[in-house]
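Summary for the funding panel

The consortium committed to producing paired sequence-structure records for every protein in the target list. Below we show the first two records in order, beginning with the earlier of the two.
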Amino acid sequence: MKKIIFLIILCCCTTIMVKAQRTDRFTYATSIGTGLAMSEPANTPFTWQVLGYYNISKRFSIGAGTGLSIYEKVLIPLFADAKYNIVKPGRITPYLECGVGYSIAPDKNANGGFYMNPSIGVQYSICENKKIFFALGYELQELERLKTQEKPLFSAEFSERLSHSSVSAKVGFVF
């Protein structure tokens, strides 16, 4: 677990250092969020994401991201992301976004799985290249975990597949 957290911190620091060499083609974003659980077992998620985008045009960008998703287990999603600004970028710009990838579970009794997070949001420009944003979407996070059942007369272990889905809300910063 310590190695994974160190790797995420290293990626964040690298992103900040690369920012000094940035051109207008690259943007970076970070966000925190939560959601309203729609599946059983119902766990309110907490998410933190860091993304890097390559701006193909003023309206369309692609990128990659990682972060933490905390349900009953901690998951580290690694995903590709596409973002489309619905109107020409201005002070207030609505957008569509979709991230798709795979999550890694650092817990030895769990395996990650498919990750998807389509959303619609709005970003507000606070100065030249800095923006804040708010997005609503849907998050699907699959997970497989090892469960243990202990009773006085028997003990059993079994694999349980979970598919966490939630209506997600996130707020973040683009630089």
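The next record, for a separate protein in the list, is shown here:
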Amino acid sequence: MAACATTYFETGRGWGARIAERNAELMAQQAQRRRRVRTPEFFVARHFDNTRLVKTSDPARVREMRVFCAAVAVLFSLIMIYGLQHFSAIEGSYRVESEKQTLEQLREENRQLHLSEAELTQPGRIDQMARQLGLAQPQPGQVVYPSSRPDSGAPALAQVASPAPAAQ
């Protein structure tokens, strides 16, 4: 036995018209199923008036609902804390990977700079560039080597003198 279904778009018609249409539909289906033996089915709409009913409060049910709400709130907060920790750990691992990549890039750049420094400070290369610029090796006596004792007669720009120890 099928029930009468109402959709949102059928609100223009009344219940009686919809029931009559549904009854005619069911009778047509039955005729096809039972080899032309018709058995009519009728649906009667019943209307109940519940306006006089009053809902009373149930303290046990209220207590149950409060306990349930508290349990759900605790469960929700625990799930949120777990999620926060989980996503913080994932973010930290991404940060560590980023720092590792940065460190690797800096190491590669340092290696390149060391190679460049070694290439630029080769004595043969420096000698070749000096010859291209027209420079020659110094003659004997042109090179002055600093001594550990400064010459007292030579002018000095700045001197550091340690204070003499006081006799006691």
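Regarding this second record: Helices lie at 15-33, 59-120, 123-132. The mean pLDDT is 83.
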